[in-house]
Write a structure and sequence with these properties.
The protein is mainly α. It is built from 3 helices and no strands. Helix 1 runs antiparallel to helix 2 and helix 2 packs across helix 3. The chain is rod-shaped. The chain starts with a helix and ends with a helix. The model has no long low-confidence stretch (mean pLDDT 79).
Length: 80
């Protein structure tokens, strides 16, 4: 997951470098804000993907009684 985040941020930084005119002054604040937005969008999408996996696991492997591992999956699905 961390490698995916690094890949997305690297892709953003490369495209920002290629789009930016070489003669214009550097805008570090705008670049940092874009990188922060890209990281936030990645983490938001990651949380939605995590929800789908835990929802599937809870429905497939947990019965009415909740052993400890099912409580963890239910917490991750409903609360986290």
């Amino acid at each position: 997951m961390v490698l995916g985040l690094c890949t997305v941020l690297l892709y953003y930084l490369v495209t920002a470098h290629l789009v930016r005119d070489a003669r214009s002054p550097r805008r570090g604040g705008l670049l940092a804000l874009g990188a922060l937005f890209t990281a936030g969008a990645y983490l938001y999408a990651l949380s939605l993907g995590d929800h789908e996996v835990t929802n599937y696991l809870h429905g497939r492997f947990c019965s009415e009684s909740l052993p400890p591992i099912c409580r963890v999956v239910a917490f991750d699905d409903d609360v986290f």
